[in-house]
Amino acid sequence: MFGLSRLARYLPKERLERIIYLMATRVLEQYPELGDLARRIGRSAQIQIYNEFGDEANIWLGVKDGEPVVSRGFHPATNTIRMHIDVFLDIVEGKIDFRQAVAHGVVEIQSHDGLPWFYHFALWASFFDKIKRLLGR
Questions:
Q1: For every residue of 40-69, which 3-state class applies, written as one string?
Q2: 1: how many CB neighbours lie within 10 A of its CB?
Q3: All residues at 6 or more sequence positions from 17 whose CB lies less than 8 Å from its CB, including other chains
Q4: What 3-state DSSP class applies to 137?
Q5: Is the pLDDT at 10 greater than 50, yes or no?
Q6: Cβ–Cβ contacts within 10 Å for residue 52, how many?
Q7: ∠39-35-85 over CA atoms, to 5°?
Q8: Helix 85-92, helix 117-134: angle, nearest 10
Q9: What is the pLDDT of residues 15-36, one digit of tens each?
Q10: 45 contacts 80 by C-beta, under 8 angstroms
Q11: Residue 1: band (very low, low, confident or very high) from pLDDT cuts 50, 70, 90
């Protein structure tokens, strides 16, 4: 559906952001309960995907004016997850589970709102499960 391959690691930051943006938008469209949850708990999240060339794609997911929003670029968030493009591809291709990636230390989760990191971990795990379902993995 999104045409991801190992060549994605060589994409310019803008193209990579676009792919992640489309995935996140599609998840919110297909799973409106995630938008409802975001509205209820008032959380926002920043996902950062980087490569070995120093490029970093940033996508923000949150609520603006009472509606769930996906936005490209860096914005203040209640939490941030950060991972290498290869890890991201392995997760969305179903080669590794998000939970395993966190346990192995290849995904970094930062909490910026005083809540423990594992609170945000549970929400992100659900998000990545839904991406994999959309991709048929």
A1: HHCCCEEEEEECCCCCEEEEEEEEECCEEE
A2: 9
A3: 57, 58, 59, 72, 73
A4: coil
A5: yes
A6: 9
A7: 120
A8: 60
A9: 778 888 888 888 888 888 877 7
A10: yes
A11: very low
